[in-house]
Amino acid sequence: MPNKIEDVFGVAAAIAKGMGVTFKEMMSPTVTEYYPDEPAKFEERYRGAHVLQRDANGMEKCVACFLCAAACPADCIYIEAAENTETVRISGGERYARVYNIDYNRCIFCGYCVEACPTDAITHGHGFEVASFNTSTLIKRKEDMLAPIPPGAKPPVIAPAGGPAAH
Amino acid sequence: MPDLVKLTIDGKAVQAAPGTLVIDAAKMAGIEIPAFCYYEGLTLQAACRMCLVEVEKMPKMMTACTLPVAEGMVVRTETPQVAQARKYTLEFLLTNHPLDCPVCDKGGECELQDMVFRYGAGESRYTEEKVHTPEKQFSPVVFFDAPRCILCFRCVRICNEGMGVGALGVIYRGVLSEIAPNHGDHLECDECGACIDICPVGALTSGIYRYQTRPWEMQHVGAICTHCGDGCKTTLGVRNNRIIRGNNRDHSGINGEFLCIKGRYAFDFYDHPERLQAPLVRKNGKLEEVSWSEALDTVANRFNQIRADGGTFGVIGSNHTTNEENFYLRKFAREVLATPHIDHHRTGDVTALVDALSGKTGRMATVADLYNRKAVLVLGADLAREHPLLSFQIRANYRHHQAHVYAVTPGPVREDKYAVASVRVASGGYFAALEDLRARLKAEPELVIVFDDSFKGPDVHRLVEFGESLGIPVRYICLVDYSNSRGALDMGLVPGEGGMRLDEMLAADLSALWVVGANPFKGTPGVPGSVARKARFLVVQDLFLTETAEQADVVLPAASAYEKSGTVTNTTGEVQRLKRAINTMGAKPDLEIMGFIARQMGAAGALGPWVPETVFAEIRRTVHGYDIPLPEIDTGGAAPTTPVNGRVTEAGGPRPDLIRSDHNGLFASGTLGRYSKVLNSVLEGRLDR
User: Fold this and answer.
1) Lower Cβ count inside 10 Å, N or C end of chain A?
2) Contact yes or no for B213 and A167 at CB 8 A
3) What residues of chain B, 88 to 107, have a C-beta less than 8 Å from chain A?
4) Considering the entire predicted model, what is its pTM?
């Protein structure tokens, strides 16, 4: 049969231990992020909205090989390829993606596309604010995902308005 | 049959006919021996060294592709030495091969890619810089990227042996060796693209398919080429309702891997900018775009009114539309419009041939017969230009079976190169030439006679008499021009009792003329019909605003062969199924258009549903010779029709003077050919006309 005094001491010790943790944490620096007042912080490997990279010359790295679309388990990547010409040069290879869409209604951010990419063109950025009230805005086009032209790069020959003809 | 040779491959007892190559014997036993340069049907090359195997009692490894089987031979394909040889051969082949698979058109269906994945080393020991030469364009359809080439010589051999053209060769030596075209920097050839399809890597690429998509992104639909009458199967690569390429890599259909420029590339007319995509009705003397319902109402009301007034209808069918459409059109004309005035443009006298062969069976040759029979007699036609598949078959027959080929033609033909006898004749001199050849033909064990529109009417009867007098089994092929010329005739698009013929219809004062998929008003010199229209109401169903459609009161935009389902009958009478590959906005299949007109007229009940399968079931029941086995055509094959006596009942028989082949060469295809960008872009096409 438990002693009453033992009981009281036991409870007091438990409270003291718990408060010990509380006071210790009060003294240490805070881990709470003040999003959205401050920007959110991410680990490098975080898989956010995709970014299509450019090379040092500002050319698109994507050569429209369709491997990302083939690897995608959600089938959310749509590509149309076209050939670089003397006058219109978009990517470093012979071919470039005339159309590159990712349907964020379907994307599960698994990162297979990034793994599949032979030219490191598609990467995961840290963008996570992709929610929308209108699902039709969730299909992102190439222009929405392209990285900015790096400073000091010779800008690529920009396709004429409306894009080059398909063939 | 000679005794089979017994040998052992990887411990398996194998039996093969003498002369079989080890690589084939292994394949029969289910053992794969990898190879690039070995290609069934072509001469042996032993250039790639990929098929090295160990053979007991032979000091060194042997190339399985050149080694015939021998009694008691013991072959090993899975030893460490063989695996090492394969690995090093691939490493060697990759010495200069760029690793640009992500960009290369062949990526995903590349034999080198597959082999390296399966047998190759992950890394190369070569540190030397790869030799790079810029890509070359041989012609509008053939591009050549030299560094990717592994020098297997397949393209050189298929062009020389398969096509009989020999437009490709090899220049320079050693590491600098390169495939080169016959005219220095460009090709002058058939532009068939066989070299592109046979290339195991991405060295030869197609100007049409180039950088458009990747092989796994397409759906592959087996269609029948709509151009000439040979009925080649072309597998269309479709993506997003667009046809991106045509080929026949799966070797299905009567043509195997063969396709000419038309089958491989000339599908591109379907998205020509001038393609009709809305019905047109003539208002105040001008054709204006209207809705489908308005156009169908206009036609149906006018047809009903003419019917009520007791007017006369004329109906002209097509050599391109499917059997179902032709059958439905005939039924429509006969039962609803109650007119005997039905006809279509004849391009060969099949009627006379069927007539002359009355009472005999198994006398119509198939495409396969041209490859299997021991002797072939070609009369009149330049097959290589007009019927490339038949020419290919005869050439393969000569190469593989040393068939005897006789060519009796007005001008030089490709068959001359390997014919046992080539005779040049002026028109009318055919029978004299045949009499000269009689003794030699009589000595043949069997014969296939191929003739074009140089023989019509009584001449066909005389030719059959000649064939029958030889005393050997003779089969016949009557050449016709377009994808379904045979079908149009078999479905009975011919004048009934007292009916007018095509030329008479054009000149007659008809109440209404209905032209489905034909262009009779095209002003070909010396052909009746170059006159302006006489009919009071002209309805035209076509893909384009042709010379005929321009004069119409109502133009209904029709779907092309690649946009509808149905069956077609080729020049040898073999039926094949068409499958819908794409849809084109605004255009409807002719069968559907006719069905809608019938419905608007309140006459659909008499004609039955306008569903291809239902109509074909009726064709099988009612048309002589079309009771063909369905499994054969449903699995992508061809089923020969069996002509029966009096199959085509035509009052008075066809008029020989109206039978006229267009003699389209490789780069022309009647009215349709004008709208193909590819056919008009190749140099030879411009030289050919």
Assistant:
1) N
2) no
3) 100-103, 107
4) 0.91
